[in-house]
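A brief tutorial aside. Many learners find it easier to grasp structure tokens once they have seen a single protein encoded end to end. The record that follows does exactly this for Ribosomal RNA large subunit methyltransferase H. Read the sequence first, then the structure, and try to relate runs of similar tokens to stretches of the chain.
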Amino acid sequence: MNITLITVGKIKEKYLKEAIGEYSKRLSRYCKLNIVELQDEKTPENASEKDENIIKEKEGERILKHINDSMYVIALDLKGNMLTSNEFSDFIGNLGLRGNSNLAFVIGGSLGISREILNRANYKLCFSKMTFPHQLFRVILLEQIYRGFKIMKGEPYHK
């Protein structure tokens, strides 16, 4: 299985880079992982809704350049479906069984994901109604993907 994380914004914190590196290494037993970091747009402090939409559109254009027709796109969105870890594992496993072995997870910028990307997405996933820092969320997502593969394979890790 090929998994691509398409993310807006760069990771600067060493401890987050180390955690991403650790989960990337662990995942290498189960899938080919590619992480694409895209530049985020600076948001003015008093940005209007129109300005925010323009920013999301610019980031969306960058994201689209890394999505191809063969990808099953999963957008991380607050209005998406919430799954347990077991359900998430089943979801990933079933995608592979149905021939969708090229997955792209999209984490938008601080303003979210553009309408165009949400329309392109095959599935919208929500981890929580809470807001997480985008940099930290990469670690959380990678951990859940790793947990999902461990559950799928019946290997110890998940409790």
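Self-check: Residues 7 and 37 are 5 Å apart (CA to CA). If you spotted this yourself, you are ready for the next section.
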